[in-house]
Design a protein that fits this description.
Oligomer: single chain
Largest sheet: 3 strands, antiparallel
Structural class: alpha+beta
Distance between the termini: 133 Å
Helix content: 55-70%
Order of helices and strands: EEEH
Number of strands: 3
Strand order of the largest sheet: 1-2-3
Length: about 130
C-alpha cells in the first residue's frame, strides 16, 4: 500500500492505493481521497483549552460534591426525623395502653364493688 498526496485548492488530499486494489473506489485518479484539515494549534491554544477543560471539570466536581453532601444530609435528617417520630408514637401508644389498663382495672374493681353492694341489697333484712 502506498499513499500519494495531491494538492487541491480547498484542502490537501491523500490518496490511498493498494496493490490489491482494496482502497480504489474510483473517486480519484489513483483511489479514494481522504480530506485532511490544515488546522494547527499553538502551545498557547493547547494550554488555554486544557485550562478551560480543567476549570470546567473542577467546577462540575464541586457541584457534584455539593449535591452528594446535600443528599447525605437530607437522608440523615429524614432518618433521624423518622426514628424520633417512631419513638414518640411508640411512647404515646405505651402511655395510652397503660392508661387503658388502669381504667380497665378501675372499672373491674367498681364492678366487683357494685356486685358486693348488690349482694347486700339482695339479702333479706335482719341478716347481716
Amino acid at each position: 500500500m502506498s499513499a500519494t498526496t495531491y494538492a487541491n485548492k480547498n484542502a490537501t488530499c491523500v490518496s490511498m492505493t493498494s496493490t490489491s486494489g482494496d482502497y480504489k473506489t474510483g473517486n480519484g485518479p489513483t483511489g479514494t481521497y481522504l480530506n485532511r484539515t490544515d488546522t494547527t494549534f499553538t502551545p498557547n491554544d493547547w494550554h488555554n483549552s486544557n485550562s478551560i477543560m480543567s476549570t470546567t471539570a473542577v467546577r462540575q466536581q464541586g457541584g457534584s460534591l455539593e449535591i452528594r453532601q446535600s443528599a447525605r444530609k437530607l437522608r440523615n435528617d429524614t432518618h433521624s426525623l423518622t426514628n424520633w417520630g417512631q419513638h414518640d408514637n411508640t411512647t404515646r401508644l405505651s402511655d395510652r395502653m397503660r392508661d387503658l389498663i388502669a381504667w380497665k382495672d378501675k372499672l373491674e374493681q367498681t364492678i366487683a364493688d357494685t356486685d358486693v353492694e348488690n349482694s347486700f341489697v339482695d339479702k333479706p333484712q335482719g341478716t347481716v
